[in-house]
Amino acid sequence: MANVRYKFFLRIGSLSAEAVEIVPVWKDEMALEWSLENGQWFYRNAMSGNFNLIRKDYDLVMSQPFNTVYYFSIFKHDGSLWKEYWLGKFCQTDCTVNTDDRRVTVKIEAIDDYNDILSGWEKEYDLIRLAPAIEKVQVTKRPMVQIYSEEDTVVSCFCGTTFFEEDVSEPTVDDLDKWLVEHCHFETLDTLQEINFAAGSPEGFGAPFTGHFVNGQYLTNSIGTYRIKYFETWDWEGLVKVYTNGLQIMLSNSDTVLWEFWQENDWVAVPLPADLEFYPRGAGTTNLEAVRTSHYTYGRVVCNVPVLSGADVYPIERDDLVPYNRNYRYCTPYKGTNELLMNWQGESDEPTQWGMKENGKYFTQPYDDTAYAPIARSKWMNTSDWFKPGTYTQGIDLSARYVYTLNDAYPIASVIGVLLGQVAPDILFDATSDYSEFLYGSGTTIGSHHQNILITPKSNITAGEYQTPAMTAPVTLKTILDMLAKTFHLHWMIQSVDVGGGVIQKRLRIEHVEWFRRGGTYSGTQQIGMDLTAIKNVRNEKTWDYATSEYSFDKEEMPERYQFGWMDEVTTPFKGLAIEVLSPFVDKGKIEEVNVSQFSSDIDLMLLNPNAISPDGFAVMTSESGAIPFVQTSLDNVVYKLQNGYLAFCMLQDPYWLYDMPAKSLKVNGQARNALGVSRNKSQTVNIPYDTTEPNLQKLVTTGIGNGQIRQLSIRLTSRMAKVTLRYDTEQV
Q1: Domain check: are 502 and 535 in the same one?
Q2: Is residue 599 part of a domain?
Q3: Under a CB-based contact definition with an 8 Å cutoff, are residues 493 and 519 in contact?
Q4: Looking at 398, 432, 449, which one is the last position of a domain?
Q5: Residues 260-279, buried b or exposed e (16+ Cβ, 10 A)?
């Protein structure tokens, strides 16, 4: 074992003060300890024991003003030079003072590269005043389909994968159909009909009859015994033209009428009433009572482009059906067909988000297809109405897009840089691979491409083409770093880099969790700092991993479920589905909530429904070639085309969250997947000799068990033997 020598110094009041050599008394078991910071991937250090300052060293401390800060340095001789090994500080309040023996016993707080960041990263600053770099980025305002059902209080709005409802004004016109078509430029769509028979009706009438009122066509129900035909005839009675219309109930396999409702009117057919009473004919024996609901539906597209090929485009009137049209200026009648559906079959005994039927059951989506969105919910009885965008909607979504320039987006590197300038000016960060291979490198890391991440105050998005950008933008460095951790699974550390000329540069390093797990690399070869299977103990000629194969597991760090969310409500693909860990050994019931506070990423929803978005916080985006990209993906067998889709959790989970998972078998986005990296919860303790060398904490240690990551390390100052806790993959992928 090498003879390691130390020297000790005090600086009184500041680090720039003259260093005074001291001779503290300390025990042989005094150790310097490193451990991973809780929830992070960097190491902090601490001195395990106390130092005793006696005689003149006692006088030096006690002769200073009470509020003096003392800086304590340890220098170690590395075989050729004295170098500062450890730095700490204390005040008299950290001391136990024995005036009889003239002894000060002191517990010293470590000073390292992380002190400034961790003490200041929750301090709030106005990002606008810090003046980070600005980038312009193109944002797309997509056209929106509006479906309205007569006499409803809301209009259903659809844009891409975004759905919401907007209040409408109460029309006061005599001819509503004409006003909607000619003034508001809606297209008349299907008239959806639902007839529900009263309790006690004969067998075969227990389910609603649904369909469209077209002369000679039928309404049917799920039981299938009967069908109902709408009829409309006219004849002259003298000089008066008399219209008769009504409904006929017949067997499904026969034209024999069993019950009938009819009404007459001069000159024009009138709508059927809501309350119906059918009279028996033929085999019918008693009257049947029923309630009818009609959903007269209309559709249009609102957009920001004044001209569309093959379509008539009109300015939106001031007294429009929808008082607030989200800065859309134009509209065109909706020409889609076969995109409305009445769902009378699906129902559930268990509560659903769609509410309860008149029959006490619960509504369900058609065919469990999440591509369908509800319309006219206030009119549902036992049948629900749904809209599913088809080829027309998909085509106009491309042709009627409006692109504008967002002038005030801030690159994430510049944001981090200006915040570090306030919190820790000695720590640098720049948009190069020296600071983040993941964000700015040209090689292969994790995922298919590198991300140009930008943020902007949300009001710059929700205001559309704003004239005045946000005036304030409060933010903390911790908020930014947490956002990167909870989206792309990026973590940070501080590296000290020798840039030549005796200059040591301190850099913030941001990389994906797998970079840390591989010992500081994205390559397939893990970085090994020490191989205990190859180092022999000279005393017994055994390797240092001899008889050290005992290990245990830390189950409290094995959640069975990860749930994701943003600051605001977002559409399904942006929220993603929960990641489920399919293993018997995880901690059942433990849920990890991954909530990105102060940020949202669903740009379409911000543009379309700004009233539902908190005015505080930021929008986070990725850009390609100066524009927010559109990305196509699928979730639950539904294809989505997402603006800013790289920041939708359905895409972030795979691949970025497939690493450092509690177990191998997962369910991600509803699909079975294998983790690409399993978290290290297999724990082992070994002894490692370090002599005059220093441990490389980031690199892995090879033992007979495998390649372990240092979790904790305690190295004695005298013997230079280290007690090390290593972590290994819980199971192999």
Answers
A1: no
A2: yes
A3: no
A4: 398
A5: bbeeeeeeebeebeeebebe
pLDDT of residue 1: 45
Residue type, 192: L
Give yes or no: residues 374 and 490 share one domain: no
Q: Which amino acid is at 518?
A: R
With residue 54 as reference, give the H or E element that holds it.
strand 51-54
Number of other residues whose CB lies within 10 A of the CB of residue 341: 19
3-state secondary structure 440-483: HCCCCCCCCCCCCEEEEECHHHHCCCCCCCCCCCEECHHHHHHH
- Confirm if 686 and 532 have CB atoms less than 8 A apart: yes
The answer to whether residue 705 is domain-embedded is: yes
Are 653 and 635 in contact by the 8 Å Cβ rule? The answer is no
Find tokens 């000089």 and name the residue.
239
Do both 300 and 416 map to the same domain? no
Say if residue 129 is in the same domain as residue 162: no
Asked if residues 666 and 658 have their Cβ atoms less than 8 Å apart, the reply is: yes
Q: Which two tokens stand for residue 445?
A: 């890391």
| CA 5 from centroid of its chain's CA atoms | 52
Residue matched to tokens 């088809």:
390
**Which of the four pLDDT bands, split at 50, 70 and 90, describes residue 227?**
very high
pLDDT at 443: 76
Residues 96 and 215 occupy one common structural domain: no
Q: For residues 112 and 42, is the Cβ–Cβ distance under 8 A?
A: no
Query: How many domains would you assign to the chain?
Result: 4
Q: Is residue 598 part of a domain?
A: yes
- HEC string of 510-561? EEEHHHHHCCCCCCCCCCEEEECCCCEECCCCEECCCCCCCCEECHHHCEEE
Q: What is the DSSP string of 2-37?
A: ----EEEEEEESSTTSPPEEE--B--TT-EEEEEEP
**Structural domain contains residue 644:** yes
Query: Which residues does 338 contact at the CB level (< 8 Å), separation at least 6?
Result: 390
Cα–Cα dist 155/169, whole Å: 10
Under 8 Å between Cβ of 226 and 195: no
Q: Are residues 234 and 185 in the same domain?
A: yes
- Tens digit of pLDDT for each residue in 662-671? 999 999 999 9
Q: What is the pTM of this model?
A: 0.87
User: 154 with 130, same domain?
Assistant: no
Q: Which two tokens stand for residue 227?
A: 């069908």
Domain identity same for 63 and 192: no
Say how far apart CA 61 and CA 608 lie, in whole Å.
66
Tokens of 697: 């904490």
Yes or no: say if 485 and 659 are a contact pair by the CB < 8 Å rule.
no
Element (H, E) at 147: strand 144-149
**Residue 573: Cβ within 10 Å count:** 25
- Output the pLDDT for position 340: 79
For the chain, the maximum distance between any two Cα atoms, rounded to a whole number of angstroms, is 130
Which H/E stretch holds residue 654?
A: helix 649-656
β-pair type (162-167, 154-159): antiparallel
User: What is the rounded distance in angstroms from the CA atom of residue 239 to the CA atom of residue 243?
Assistant: 13
Neighbour count for residue 634 (Cβ, 10 Å): 12
**Does the structure show a pLDDT above 50 at 411?**
yes
Residue range of the domain that includes 107: 6-30+45-112
Of the candidates 373, 398, 423, which is a domain's last residue? 398
In this structure, what DSSP letter does residue 100 have?
T
Q: Are 333 and 189 within 8 A, CB to CB?
A: no
Neighbours of 404 (CB within 10 A): 12
Helix (H) or strand (E) holding 142: none
